Prior knowledge:
The complex is a heterodimer.
Chain A: H1 13-27, E1 44-49, H2 54-66, E2 70-75, H3 80-83, H4 87-97, E3 101-106, H5 111-116, E4 122-128, H6 134-148, E5 155-159, H7 166-177, E6 181-185, E7 201-203, H8 206-209, E8 215-218, H9 234-241, H10 245-249, E9 256-258, H11 271-274, H12 281-300, H13 310-313
Parallel strand pairs in A: 1-2, 1-3, 3-4, 5-6, 5-8, 6-7, 8-9
Chain B: E1 3-10, E2 15-21, E3 24-29, E4 38-41, E5 46-49, E6 51-56, H1 69-78, E7 81-86, H2 97-110, E8 114-117, H3 133-138, E9 145-146, H4 156-165, E10 172-175, E11 188-189, H5 192-197, E12 201-202, H6 204-221, E13 225-227, H7 233-244, E14 249-253, H8 281-293, E15 298-299, H9 328-337, H10 344-358, E16 376-386, E17 405-415, E18 418-422, E19 425-426
Parallel strand pairs in B: 1-4, 1-5, 6-7, 7-8, 9-10, 10-13, 11-12, 13-14, 14-15
Antiparallel strand pairs in B: 1-2, 2-3, 5-16, 16-17, 17-18, 18-19
Helix pairs in contact in B: 1-2, 4-6, 6-7
Amino acid sequence: MKHHLISAADLTKDDALLILDTAEELASIADRPIKKLPTLRGRTVVNLFFEDSTRTRISFEAAAKRLSADVINFSAKGSSVSKGESLKDTALTLEAMGADGVVIRHGASGAPHRLANWVRGSVVNAGDGTHEHPTQALLDAYTMRRRLGDLDGRRVTIVGDILHSRVARSNVLLLETLGAEVTLVAPPTLFPVAVGTWPCEIAYDLDAVLPKTDVVMMLRVQQERMNAAYFPTVREYSRRYGLDGRRMAALPQHAVVMHPGPMNRGVEIAAEVADSPRSTIVEQVANGVTVRMAVLYLLLGGSQPAVGTTRLEGE
Amino acid sequence: MTYLIKGARILGGSPQDIRISDGVIAEIGAGLDSGGAEIVEADGLVALPGLVDLHTHLREPGREDAETVESGTRAAAAGGYTAVHAMANTEPVADTAGVVEQVWRLGREAGHCDVHPVGAVTRGIEGHQLAELGAMADSAAHVRVFSDDGHCVDDAVLMRRALEYVKAFDGVVAQHAQEPRLTEHAQMNEGEVSGRLGLAGWPAVAEEAIIARDCLLAAHVGSRLHVCHVSTAGSVEILRWAKSKGWQVTAEVTPHHLFLTDDLAETYDPIYKVNPPLRTKADVEVLREALADGTIDCVATDHAPHPIEAKETEWAPAAMGMIGLETALSVAQAAMVDTGLLDWAGLADRMSVRPARIGRLAGQGHLPEQGAPANLTLYDPAARTVIDPAASVSKSRNTPFAGIELPGRVHATFLRGRPTVLEGKPA
Lengths: 315, 427
């Protein structure tokens, strides 16, 4: 493992499998009455959130606390510029407080790269602009593996705003590493111009892809895309690219439906799909904590085993 | 003061002596007698005409924390320049006779190189109403180049009128070609790298569409158009076509667009953030060929100083631009001469003769010959320098060439017979 987790591309197949396997081990403690391990006792994790994201922040917070780390939540909504303090000065402040790990969510692509120049602790990217969100990809892979087993050769379809999606970028990179076959589906306006160079297939017709899909992942349509001529109307988008009951029926029996949340019910995903047994959406949230525990443990925990100190095993 | 330059290779030719006296080149020949002149040993040095920059941001008035006329022109002299055109996007904007005369006067007082203010095309470079172009032309600053640089004159009617109007005093409109709607929030060249990095793309077509329109407008009204900092292969194709029609279109390219590519953004270090953005290797190759064959007329630095904090940020909020006066000749040598695309005479044409002609500067851009104004640069092409931002003469440090070894070093610069740089140091 590297010192930071900034891009899914930083992970070799061995790294990724180590994280997923570690998460499997850690999952066992979620069923225990006391869901806490002493592994990161005395370590400080800072959640540095420049964007509102309650779900991601509490996921990281729960992960760090279950490993007994001290957690500092540093919420700095708005850009660093409008706030008046630069990212560099914020970084130097964290450095002075002795942060062992910094979990950063930022509206500017590349902010975690910049932060890593200014702090000694491990930087974990919790979503940067329209670039990447590697722990989301890890929790998605973990969720897929739990439902479907080994991902090698599995066909994953990701549908929606690929152009602006950090979830899509990280998933394409990680799933490629894990041997899955990814197809991206979107209206042509919501693909990057050079998407042809990405290690995946692209398609404009969702109906043609669904019967050959093991996993379909629906991306959120952001409010700000709706009036910027990426598509004529929300209803047309929903008709052509939304996952409703009819489309879900076209999936193979074993296929699962994913969504990184938060959902626009009735836009990219119908309520009956979101709430169906095929949906992994609630599992994804629970798995998020487990996978982030594994990431924090492997980045900050040093050489001790994650689970398996004799005292805990005896419990 | 009389100087005798010993053994300089004029435009890369065989070694000759050059006597400078009363601001002009008095004599050129072998084994000239010193006759009491100050001797400048130039063994191995190439003598070039003093360089002329059509595109410099001196930041004064308004952003003296980044650069002043004094510091910027000192940097220009250190880079071998004897004339620079100071862009209009200062605070206040250079859109009146008063502001252009202030900049011109500050240049005269500093004395490091000639400063020719560029006048804004529109008031406040806001793109709504023409600035008083005639007043700036008639002022002591004698403005002939007009530009809203940093902003595109995207209104086709306003651009047409500006092109027409400046004909009255043989002016030229230097367009920053950037279609604004296609580049809203744009951060870097739109392509494989921008898609991967999640940085909003800046499509080549946003530049090319404006250049095509402006060439057609210039042809329609019979005016001179100059295209600033051309950055794409497609732009070159349009310029080649416009020139083939005999239209009065000229263009410049920056040293950084001749040398650097968009994959540098992978570091997310905004030192590589610039407008227009760095493009691909294929674009760089076409730009070099176009400069060599004359489709692109000249090298212009787009020297854009910024204080440290404007670049020590995330990519998106960082300022666009890079400094370039002190490294331009070295980068041009690496890109054009060392690659065999241009010889020294060719480079002198692209970095001095043609830009002086476009700017209508009578006293600049003369090849070194007897009777010519003694604007000269003595350059050591064999030197190698690892670029150290802390060593820059400019007030700012935002060079994209930090840590890169570049060829060549300016040994001396003469402005009308007076050294502004000697032994590589400001005189």
